[in-house]
Amino acid sequence: MDQTIAIATVALIVHIIAAVVWVGGMFFALLVLRPATGALDAAPRLALWGRVLERFFAWVIAAIVLLLISGYGMVFGVFGGFADIGLHVQLMQGTGILMMLLFFHVYFAPWRRFKAASARRDHAGAARQLNQIRWIVMLNLVLGLITVAVGGSGRYWG
């Protein structure tokens, strides 16, 4: 197997799996877990979300690292740099970077405030932060679905 094909194959598999973990996790959290936890009282619901997000955010950080390594590995190791990549790759990179910035905002602002409020047993404060996280994750889910559609279909645009 040619070295370029091997790099492309491994990088693409890693890239796709990392994207599925991140985008699929957001889909699950918003459209499956959130409605299922609605019937719980505030204290157990917030505790559950704290445990869920702690684990999920660790996976998102790992996914971001793998997406950056595999994405730029393909750009430079397969396509020879930015000059020869298609518009869909540029769009995927742009939306991906925006998603990463939104995630790091969530992680370093409302998530930290959520944990602090939870530690104080301030259920109202924790719920406000969780709601802010939800809105940003919802935006990131939309961006993630667009990114997946662009990445999956872009090579067939022209």
Write a concise keyword list for the protein shown above.
mainly alpha, single chain, 0% strand, 85% helix, 5 helices, elongated, 158 residues
What can you see in these coordinates?
This protein has five helices and no strands. It is an all-alpha fold. It has one domain. α2 (42-77) packs antiparallel against α3 (87-108). The two termini are 28 Å apart. The model has no long low-confidence stretch (mean pLDDT 96).
| Gap between N and C termini | 28 Å
Mean pLDDT: 96
Count of DSSP strands: 0
What is the radius of gyration computed over CA atoms, rounded to a whole number of angstroms?
18 Å
Sheet with the most strands, sense and barrel status:
none
Helix and strand sequence: HHHHH
Low-confidence stretches: none
Q: What general form does the structure show? A: elongated
Give me the oligomer status: single chain
Look at the helices and sheets and give the structural class. Answer: mainly alpha
Proportion of strand residues: under 5%
Helix content: over 70%
Number of DSSP helical runs = 5
Overall tally of structural domains: 1
Helices and strands in order, then pairings?
Blueprint: H1 3-37, H2 42-77, H3 87-108, H4 110-119, H5 123-153
Brief sketch in words of this structure:
With 158 residues, this protein is mostly helical.
